[in-house]
Amino acid sequence: MSSLGAMDIERLKALIRINIPFDTCSYSNINELYVSILKCITHILNCSYSAFFTFNSSFNYYTPLFLINSDGEKLSLLSYKKEEYIEFVAKNIEIIVFNEKIKSNNFNIEINNSIIFPIYFENECIGVLQAINKKDNVSFNKSDSAFLQILGEYAGIVCKNYALYLQAGERITELQTVISKKTSSIFIAESPVLKDIKKMVEGLYSVSSPILIVGESGTGKEVLAEYIHSKSSRASYPLVKIKCALNNSSLEEELFGKYPNAIEKAWKGTLFIDSITDMPLHIQGKLQTILQQKKFYRNGTAELIPVDIRLITSSNTDIEDLVKKHLFREDLYYRINVLPINLPPLRRRKEDIKALSMYFLEKYSVENQKKFSGFSSSAMKKLQLYSWPNNIRELSNVIECACIREVPPIIKNIDIRNVKDSNIYIDESIESPQLNIMPNKVDRSLKNAVNVFKKQYLEQILKETDWNQTETAKILKVQRTYVSKLIMELGIKRPLKDGY
Asked: What percent of the chain has pLDDT over 90?
């Protein structure tokens, strides 16, 4: 090693630098690796420019892909014409040197001298590099040729391996999508409200506008997002899920960090952001900019990356209220709320309980290697009368427990744990209450009767929507601001415990 000169050591370091992008998997495509090699060549050979040529199947010959200067800046190409000396190098896997002026068909620069060499793997040419205009009026020499002979073979191995790595990643993504479609696109809808949602979703096949799903925890927002993706024109591409419960730095890195981040993984597919109201304001700002510009900078880089995704978000809180309190960006809210979907709690769509129970029974029967065929009438009645404060997630838990404890062929007993009193069961009178519009026998004027009716009816709808003023306004077919005004005028106050 002591016999090596300073230039030889520098050239050995160049070989190591070329390998770093592959080892760190830091580039999103093979072209970035090509540029890295060009920069290395330009530096180590001390030349003014370098260019990379690849085979263009449209023209059936090699055309320039990049031309960079010694500062690493990409320069404009004049054309994509055929260069005979490039074709010779690619065909014969040989190096040629020009220590005199030559004319280029593709570059708007004067070429005083150049060396052209192949990047190859097992006698297959991957690309051709051209180093142009060695500085200080120095010519390219045999030492340069010997070094490039080694580099061309070595870089060919790196490029081939990197291409295989990216292909493997794409294949894994494809397989994950297939598995996701087979296992995650089941959306059970027996209630009228969910049938309407299902019908609407199936009509959005070619629509890529953002969707906001609002509903209590455990109502199936993620399952609905999966169903929307499976019924869209993007179904053959990935569905990527992000939970905003991650800490701030992890969430930002997951969304915008090094390749492959969530946005890049979801290319041409769907990005589902769960509990978006938990997203910190500074990350909301970045997401808003991305949705507006359809491009973004990966953290720590200066490269602008195009964005092609369908965004679905979910929330279990009233986002409009958070916007008023400046806890959620108003501009982002309007970006994500193009197609809002309200997913009612399970107690408001009892028609789905039986179908969901049978689905979970089949699932957990297989997992526990038991052959259950159904529920006893008393067990099913108990399932349908319970209010399910934790929604489908709780129903799943109860059925799983029953499958473990019970003996086939049917589930006879349902054990709903942590039940302290009977108010967890649905009182049928609550579902369809009778309005008493004449409580005041002193003032029986029409104006008073109308106000009493308004108050009682508005309280009922508010209760049905869990005091969600936006959803209440939709049911009443009025503006949300008018609902707020009525609440104030009629003196309506939300009880400390709403029903269940």
From this structure: 41
